[in-house]
Specification:
The complex is a heterodimer of chains A (108) and B (444). With 108 residues, chain A is of the alpha+beta class. Chain A contains three helices and six strands. Chain A has a single domain, classed as 2-Layer Sandwich (Alpha-Beta Plaits). Chain A is elongated, with a radius of gyration of 14 Å. Classes of the chains: A alpha+beta (108), B alpha+beta (444). At the A-B interface, strand 2, strand 3, strand 4, strand 5 and helix 3 of A face helix 9, strand 14, strand 15, strand 16 and strand 18 of B.
Chain lengths: 108, 444
């Protein structure tokens, strides 16, 4: 079945210059393998589309049941240079939680 | 065990938080983090205008307000409130609170040494773009090295009540009392990493105690009286994160995990001047009653270079807004944007960037925002940036006229023309550790 990522995860996002960091955390650590399977670099890159001009990198933190994404060149220059209202990408974790994922009913 | 509390996550954080931390329960150390990257350049500008300024001006009055209680309760303060003028900050604290002994850490400010460093073959290349610093040499506004916890610990060794640093790392503020109390040394990489991660967890104040937390946020108790974080540190490097009993907010594995991931890069290699910490070794255990215990942290030797935070004048920007009401709010806002762009073009003006977003439609989430077909109102927000100040000035005249000459129901122009602001940009670089030496001074 298809569910939004927010069904199984929460997150927090921040910045380092023009790089956005989005941490996605399984609400129940049981779902960490689902995060690894469903929330891939390719899907995240595709999801944000034009917003991200550089690479997307994913780091795994099995100890926290979490993955950390770095989205390069994603904040319109970042910091004081960015003309966006969310120049630090504080709201981007909430955006990514709308990603539709595939999960088996027995997995939920 | 020692208790280290963070009462300020940035300059501008809740003024009452540090007072409450001191008054509402036992703590041994109060750490206050005032500096963001852009703050240094603002402070540098203030110092150039008046040599007695250039530090976090909230800090000396706070020390005056707390002085008696700090002395009575034996609470010591570690803060990077010094900005680009730690000595002036310390003197002001002494003037307002003469009963406090104050020590400063110096050596992070390399603004006057830039040419010397360049002449000695240190390019200070931008870590993100690879450009050499010489390309912006005449536009530099401030240059500070992120210094570590050992010089802060040395300052604690003087017996001072208040330690004031300039641009030390945020995490060093929390790690320093552990080094001082437990006698940790260079080479104790696991323990230094543990203290560093403790610092990372509390450096943003209430952002680990229920602030900005996405999990059941509406059920988080009493955010008006949110408790700021306290680390209960043990000599072996394990620690618990908690808050004073009876305060608002929540501490559980969710709030701690969110903060662990905040502004994190490669979790295996969290670089600081003191060690490299590995976030994949963190083990969390909820102990109930707003307390999470953290064990297992591993670290590796500190890097050979230190990070430099340089700020420079990039150019100018202005951001203007207009509001349109239902019906057709979005269509009206888009038409306004087209008119502004068309008029700028007619004037022969071009910009390094012109960027439009629609507040109430796509400003926070851009192309992935959930679309609302007929919103009750939309704010169009147009921003430009350029090296040429005159072009940006001219742009600021082009929005308000649309209230009379553009689509219907335009409003929200009460602030008049938008302000032109200088863009002070950030230039991260590396410098070899040997080039930097710190010094501790007690300010009498």
């Amino acid at each position: 079945m298809k569910v939004p990522l927010s069904r199984i995860a929460h997150g927090r996002s921040g910045d380092k210059g023009d790089t956005s960091n989005i941490g996605i955390i399984a609400l129940d650590e049981r779902h960490y393998p689902v995060l690894l399977r469903e929330v891939t670099v390719e899907r995240v890159k595709q999801f944000f589309g034009d917003m991200v001009h550089g690479d997307v990198v994913r780091y795994e933190l099995p100890n926290l049941g979490a993955v950390n994404f770095l989205l390069y060149e994603a904040l319109g220059g970042g910091g004081t240079l960015s003309l966006r209202i969310d120049a630090q990408g504080k709201a981007l974790s909430a955006a990514l939680l709308r990603l539709e994922i595939e999960i088996g009913e027995q997995e939920l | 065990m020692i208790r280290i509390a963070n009462g300020q996550g940035f300059w501008g954080d809740w003024l009452e938080a540090p007072v409450r931390l001191v008054e509402q329960g036992p703590i041994d150390y109060l750490v206050l983090d005032y500096l963001a990257e852009v703050t240094m350049s603002i402070l540098q500008k203030q110092k150039l205008a008046d040599s007695r300024l250039g530090y976090a001006s909230d800090f000396p009055p706070l020390m005056a307000r707390l002085a008696k209680q700090l002395r009575e309760r034996g609470v010591r303060v570690v803060a990077n409130a010094g900005g680009v003028n730690p000595v002036a900050c310390a003197e002001e604290v002494r003037r307002l609170a003469p009963c406090l002994k104050v020590a400063v850490v110096l050596g992070d400010d390399i603004y006057s040494r830039i040419d010397d460093l360049l002449a000695h073959g240190h390019d200070l290349r931008n870590m993100d773009t690879g450009q050499p610093l010489s390309s912006i040499r005449d536009r530099i506004r401030s240059a500070n090295v992120y210094t570590g916890a050992f010089s802060l610990a040395e300052a604690l060794g003087t017996g001072a009540d208040v330690i004031i640093a300039g641009r030390c790392t945020d995490t060093a503020l929390t790690l320093a009392p552990m080094i001082h109390e437990f006698g940790w040394e260079e080479g104790d990489w696991d323990r230094l990493a543990a203290g560093t991660i403790a610092g990372h967890i509390i450096e943003c104040g209430a952002q680990c105690t229920g602030g900005n937390c996405q999990v059941d946020w509406q059920a988080i108790p009493d955010m008006a009286d949110i408790g700021y974080p306290i680390v209960e540190a043990e000599p072996d490097g394990s620690f618990a994160v908690t808050k004073h009993p009876g305060t608002g907010g929540r501490i559980d594995k969710h709030t701690i995990k969110e903060q662990l991931l905040y502004e994190l890069g490669d979790p295996h290699n969290y670089m600081t001047p003191d060690c490299i910490a590995d976030f994949t070794t963190v083990r969390l255990r909820e102990e109930g009653n707003d307390r999470v215990r953290i064990t297992g942290i591993r670290g590796t030797p500190r890097p050979a270079t230190l990070k430099v935070s340089i700020s420079y004048s990039w150019g100018w920007k202005a951001i203007g807004t207009l509001v349109y009401s239902w019906p057709d709010a979005l269509a009206k806002a888009k038409t306004a944007d087209q008119i502004v762009r068309s008029r700028l073009k007619q004037l022969g003006l071009s910009f390094e960037q012109i960027y439009t977003e629609y507040f109430g439609y796509n400003a926070c989430h851009g192309p992935v925002a959930q679309v609302c077909a007929e919103p009750p109102e939309i704010q169009v927000r147009i921003g430009v940036r350029d090296m040429n100040r005159q072009s940006v000035e001219r742009f600021t005249r082009e929005l308000v006229p649309l209230v009379l000459s553009g689509p219907p129901t335009g409003t929200g122009y009460g602030e008049g023309r938008p302000a032109v602001r200088e863009i002070i940009a950030y230039w991260p670089a590396l410098v070899p550790r040997e080039e930097i030496s710190t010094a501790v001074e007690v300010v009498a």
